[in-house]
Design goal:
Blueprint: H1 23-31, E1 37-43, H2 51-65, E2 71-75, H3 77-86, H4 88-91, H5 95-105, E3 109-118, E4 121-130, E5 135-145, H6 148-162, H7 174-218, E6 220-221, E7 224-225, H8 229-265, H9 276-288, E8 290-297, E9 300-307
Parallel strand pairs: 1-2, 1-3
Antiparallel strand pairs: 3-4, 4-5, 6-7, 8-9
């Protein structure tokens, strides 16, 4: 069966990671003492992945192995063909058979990946085999992987663990925290400004309603009106509309004032790196100190808020 043309989708049972014998041997052979190695990279077919996925993982392994010093990663299709001829399930665990496949392919070492499915999730194992000395040099495992995409993501770290390549973790970005604080302050001032504008609008429409009402009352003389009934009715309706608009703006102003106060009171980044349950308790404690009271009356709506310090 030619793995360079078609992929094999046979099922293979996987065993645990290979036994390396004496532990101190692995570190010396992995370092290579400055030698240069032709590295055959293979991903063993299994029922845990499709042919296309196997090919993709093999390519990902080869790409990651390129970071290893003194190694020349090569496609392992020829090695897979030989393993298939010899009986892949037994040959991958037999050093003499595996070394023979490597010699026929003209490589010094073999980087062999295996993927198996367990009740706890997928398990990716990567072995480094020395063809000349006919022994396994090193291995690394990623266990409990949730899905194929997660397997792809774990390949780079697992391969680099085999070669002792340290994967640098990204440093914390404190600029993001500062940016968050700046955004919060801008939002606090913005909501405060909106609250003031809404309050001013409410006062304007409230005064307009009062003025219209005064005009209607002033037109009443000796039990009659100096203006027509139609004009009086129009003014009364305009006064009611202005009063309703004023009350709505008062409510909006109160709501914006509450939001602004919260943004000013809560310290930016105060819950960074805290456990989720502690964050929930802190937020719940803050909300418990704020009392919202809706106010509804004839021709008016509003809201009041009280704080406990």
């Amino acid at each position: 069966m030619d793995f360079g043309v078609e992929e094999v989708e046979e099922e293979f049972d996987d065993d645990e990671a290979m036994d390396f014998g004496a532990g101190e041997v692995g570190e010396d052979l992995r370092a290579g003492n400055g030698q240069s190695f032709r590295l055959g990279v293979v991903m063993i077919p299994s029922d845990a992945m499709s042919s296309q996925e196997r090919s993709e993982l093999q390519g990902k392994m080869r790409e990651s192995a390129g970071a290893a010093k003194n190694y020349e990663p090569l496609d392992g299709s020829e090695i897979l063909n030989r393993l298939d001829e010899e009986g892949m399930e037994s040959c991958i665990t037999e050093p003499l058979c595996l070394a023979g496949a490597g010699e026929d392919a003209g490589v010094d070492r073999i980087l062999m990946g295996r993927l198996r499915s367990t009740p706890a999730g997928l398990v990716l194992t990567v072995d480094l085999f020395d063809v000349t000395n006919k022994l396994f040099v090193e291995y690394a495992t990623a266990s409990g992987v949730s899905g194929y995409s997660a397997v792809v993501d774990s390949v780079d770290k697992t391969v680099k663990d085999v070669f002792g390549i340290r994967v640098e973790r990204a440093a914390p970005n404190y600029a993001d925290e500062a940016s968050t604080g700046t955004v919060q302050r801008v939002m606090a001032y913005s909501t405060a400004g909106i609250a003031v504008v809404a309050l001013a609008g409410g006062i304007y429409f409230g005064m307009d309603a009062a003025s219209l009402e005064d005009e209607v009352l002033a037109a009443k003389v000796d039990g009659g009106f100096t203006i027509s009934q139609v004009s009086a009715t129009r003014k009364i309706r305009d006064a009611e509309d202005s009063a309703l608009t004023a009350n709505i703006l008062y409510g909006a102003s109160a709501g914006m004032a509450v939001v602004s106060a919260i943004l000013f009171i809560v310290e930016p980044g105060s819950d960074v790196a805290e456990p989720d349950d502690r964050r929930r308790r802190r937020r719940a404690g803050l909300l418990e100190k704020i009392d919202f009271t809706p106010q509804v009356g004839l021709g008016r709506v509003g809201m009041s808020a009280g704080f406990e310090f």
